[in-house]
Each structure stands twice: as structure tokens, then as C-alpha cells.
Design a protein that fits this description.
289 residues; alpha/beta; D-Maltodextrin-Binding Protein, domain 2; 2 domains; six-stranded mixed sheet; five-stranded mixed sheet; 37% helix; 23% strand; disordered N terminus
Length: 289
Amino acid sequence: MTGGRAINCTGLCNTAVDSSVKPLVFANFLAPNMTSVYAAVAARVGRAIGVPARLIQGDGFEQLRDGSVDVAFLCGLPYVRLCAERPGMLYPLAAPILDEARYQDRPVYFSDVIVHRDSPFSSFEDLRGRSWAYNDPDSFSGWLLVRHYLVQMGETEAFFGRLAFSGWHQESIRRVHAGEIDASAIDSQVLGVERLRNPDVASELRVIATLGPSTSPLAVATAGVPEDLRQQVRDALCDLGRQPEIRDVLASGLIRRFTPIDDSAYDDIRQVLAVVDQRRAPSSSAGTR
């Protein structure tokens, strides 16, 4: 990932916006396979509110702390952690409603546990002692929710024979497909997009367990964005699903539309985090993993 790299929005941005106005900087902190979608979203929002907009690839949460990013597409786990660290740092704007029946027209997603099609595994319990890839320690779907499931089983991360850090959901998918890793938990939106774009790869994977639903990743504004501008961005995001000219772009990211979201919607993630942290505390004091 190239930190701070602007995404080319040629042909998407409205040339009628006021170029003398400070550009609104959007950042994607989610999977790279969503970058093109969110570049188009940023451009459309800028067009709607008459402000130049550009998307960069987020390269660290310090960009949210120092306000160098105005609007971010962010996983719910770092959102709740950053809100706890500094209340008022981030303001929730909207979350996507994904375009499949299992999402039931709600801003939720799942964590799908994948294995290779030809593997012998048919349930999560079959993965005891096997190799597991996780994309990021700050990923809710890729790691924290898995740890929560292990707590419910009365297990720890030692349930797996080997843990491997992949860096991205797409890299976890590649490693499972290549037979380098036995299993991984993948954000269901990311997996759905890969099925659309790489059907040959997706056809060689199986989902053996599904965790969730959980509240979707979201768009947030940072503290330096004025309240009236935050509201304009929220309204523009939520209007996208009614614009035929961008519907195909949203569909390429499995997005039906955006809906307004508030902080309390992420209490489910806070509850999962509390359970995992509570489980971790005694083992840490005992000097074990």
C-alpha cells in the first residue's frame, strides 16, 4: 500500500466545483479492492456539495488524529478504539447497505471463514491445529470476531497450529487459494467483490462458517470538518443510491446504498471487544499468551 497516494478520479470529478476551495480529502482504510469504488464515491460527494474531493489510500490512523484526512472509510473496530482514545475525534456519517438477501437491507456484514474447495474441512472445529491467516490486528471481521468466537468455544488463539499475518483480506484469500494457509476469516463484502471480479479463484474456495452479523464499516468525518459540512457529506452519501449514473459503480462494491449511522450502532463491536479484552487480561497477568 502506498501511503497518501491520491487516486485518479479523472472523468468522475465535476469540473464545475469551486477549485479555490480547499479540497476535501477522503481516505480508504479498508480493503484495496474497494479503492476504485470509494474514489468514485468521493468524487460524486464532492460534486454534490460543490467542493473538490480526492481519495487517498490511508496509511495510518495518525491521519485521523491530526486531521490530515477529512473523511475516512473505516472498519468499526478502529472506529470504536479511536473514539475511546479521544472522544470527539471522529463523527459517524453513513454506512453501506450491501446488495445481497442475507443483509436484509441493514448496515451489517459478516465474517466468512474460507478454506480451499478441495480441503477436508467442513466446520470451524475442524481447523484445530491448522494454519490460519489474519489480515490485520485492527480488523474486526478478520481477527477480533474470530478471537471472540474462540472465547465462546473456551479456546484461545492456540487453537490454531500456526498463525500468519497477511496484511490484507485479499492476500489471505490468495494464500488459502494457493494452499499456503488452511483457512482465514474474510469480510463478506470483500469476499463478495472478489467473487464478482475473480470468479475462477472464488469458485475454488468454500465458506465453512459464518460469524456475525456485525455493524458495517463506515464513513466518518474527522474533528476539523465543520458540522454543516459533515451533514452535507452525509446527505450526499445517502443520496448516491438514488443516482442511476453511479449505481453500477456501487454494485461493483456490492453496495446498494448508504444509510445514516450513529455511534450507538457500534455497541455490538464494543461488546465483542470487551469480552475479548476481559479474557486476555487474566492470561496477560499470568505471563501467558
